[in-house]
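Hey team,

Filing this mostly as a record. A colleague (T.K.) asked me to run one chain through the structure pipeline before their review meeting, and I want the input and output archived in the tracker in case anyone asks later how it was produced. No errors, nothing strange. Just documentation.

Input sequence:
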Amino acid sequence: MKVKDYLIILQLPTEATHCQNFNCTDEKHLEEIENLYAELTSSLLATTSSAFKTAGKKNAGKFNIPGWNSVVKAQHRIAKAAFWLWVNCNRHKTGDIHENMVKTNKDLKHLLWQCCKDVEIHKANGLADALQADKTNNTFWQKVKQQNQVSITASIGG
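Output structure:
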């Protein structure tokens, strides 16, 4: 979507925008202005993130981590939700929301580290699950073959 499309959807708070008091402390007006600000910034972020690609390698992030689904996936969802809650609450550097975001991110990193440490165990568990699930053993042997393939590069002239 373009910025124009988001701005069409955006609803201006009528009561707060028609208020004549520059030093207004009405809770309802302040809440309407905060909500408008949050909607405006999130729509601008959404449009700019789709317009600009992030720099990085062509295949960055396109690899499998054995054990991700069984060990890390649930914590990743929790950490992602905590992060977006923190972002939507104006990214305060203190408070319960920030502490929760930091804690869930720390837990995620610990589980990811543990998952990477136990790669061979997760690969073996994946093979065992494939053996139990496959009655004809075809997929099991295909997975064994994939894991045992070693790429050999030829070196010519040195």
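Quick notes for T.K.: Residues 16 and 31 are 9 Å apart (CA to CA). Residues 68-147 form one domain.
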